[in-house]
Amino acid sequence: MGLFHRRKPATVQATEPRAGIADFWNWWAVAAAELADAIPMATVNRYVDVMTAHVNAIDPGLAWEFAPGRTSRHQLTVTAEGDPGLRRVARQWLRAAPPPDTVWSFHDLRQPGPLGFRLWIGGVDLNLNEVRVAGTRHGSGLDVIVHHPLFASLPQQVQAQIAFLSLDTALGEEAVELWIGGVGRAAEEPVGSRPLAELPALVAEVIADGMPDGSMGWTMLRGEGPRGPLLVSRLNRLSPVQAPQHDQHAAVTVPFSDHTAAGLPGPGSLDALRAFENHLTAIVKGSGQLVAVETSGGVRTLHYYVDSGTPAAAQLEAATRGWEQGRVGVEARLDPAWDSVRRFRD
User: Fold this and answer.
1) Neighbour count for residue 247 (Cβ, 10 Å)
2) Tens-digit pLDDT string for the chain (346 aa)
3) Cα–Cα distances in Å, from 218 out to 90, 133, 213, 301?
4) C-alpha span between 300 and 271 (Å, rounded)
5) Which residues contact 117 (CB under 8 A, 6 or more apart)?
6) What is the Cα–Cα distance from 302 to 282, expressed in whole angstroms?
7) What global pTM score does this model have?
């Protein structure tokens, strides 16, 4: 039994979704009250096709669902379904939403839900309260094995659907994408398993370690690279789900003149590098973030992810011209899956 990840290849967004988003919310303004009444009357099925058509007009890869709200009677979620290339689109849809009220709230990631309901999937009827999980710490995250008594008789694809639906329901889609690493399924109950309802408390311990002051912490890694000893400082969790709008990777390569025999910064360059990093990070504040710093062979590479809909990458390039210890390079490319820093992940 191996571990797997719900990671779809990043979609290349070929069309501009703004028109579809505007059309959706124009239609919603008229239909929202009628939909709210239809849900308790169990007549909402007659709206499924028109709802799907409006979501598909934004992007066919998006999925939608209604659910009871936490702060409202109903909630509408439009999600990228694990596709990092569409998370930005779903976030744009959410940003255009009307303010939540007592009737409707809106989300672009599935929210945690109640576990005490029966699920009809793959031709079988099962209870999420019968799901059990075993968790193992792996770096800054948690690998889990999901078990249900019916797994032994179900196809692999249905098992995977049940496993991720169970995790999304217990934790919410954001926490699953951010803190859960590998996900395995087991036909036999794994050693050390616990009820699905206990998983949020287990993940809360992981989050407390990864975000000790309420913001994402950093991890230091050491190794060998093509230019000799390699030093990497990176966010504890390198997942685009924490900032879907930051879909453009900008690698800033900064040579420095004072370095040790191992190629790491000497005292004559260290303070200047820190000040330069702080300056660039301030430049993109609000439209990007620094996610990893890589140092080897007399060069420091600052890995930023920025919003491609802003001039952040160009602003970074303009801000590097004052560096006096060599020629700074800036290379930017669309990378909604954050693949450029995948090698630094747990």
Assistant:
1) 25
2) 333 344 455 554 445 688 999 999 999 999 999 999 999 998 989 999 999 999 999 999 999 999 999 999 999 999 998 898 899 999 999 999 999 999 999 999 999 988 877 777 777 788 889 999 999 999 999 999 999 999 999 999 999 989 998 999 999 999 999 999 999 999 999 999 999 999 999 999 999 999 999 999 999 999 998 999 999 999 999 999 999 999 999 999 999 999 999 999 999 999 999 999 999 999 999 999 999 999 999 999 999 999 999 999 999 999 998 899 999 999 999 999 999 999 999 8
3) 28, 28, 11, 16
4) 13
5) 127, 128
6) 13
7) 0.88
Cα–Cα dist 60/242, whole Å: 23
Residue 202 and residue 99 in one domain: no
Do the domain assignments include residue 7? no
Q: Give whole-number Cα distances, 80 to 20, 63, 151, 177, 237, in Å.
A: 15, 6, 26, 12, 20
* Judgement on whether residues 163 and 269 belong to the same structural domain of the protein: no
Report which DSSP code applies to 8: P
Non-local CB neighbours of 315 within 8 Å, separated by 6+ positions:
283, 284
Q: Residue 225: which CATH number?
A: 3.30.70.240
Separation of alpha carbons 165 and 159, rounded Å: 10
Domain boundary among 47, 81, 107: 107
Domain assignment of residue 321, given as a range: 218-344
Q: How far apart are CA 62 and CA 89, in angstroms?
A: 9
Q: In the chain, how many domains are there?
A: 3
| Phi, psi (degrees; rounded to nearest 5) at 12 | -90, 115
112: in domain: no
**Same domain assignment for residues 223 and 340:** yes
Same domain assignment for residues 222 and 338: yes
Last residue of a domain, one of 149, 178, 210: 210
Task: Kindly give, in sequence order, each residue whose CB lies less than 8 Å from that of residue 156, ignoring residues fewer than 6 positions away.
Answer: 185
Residue whose tokens read 């004052």: 322
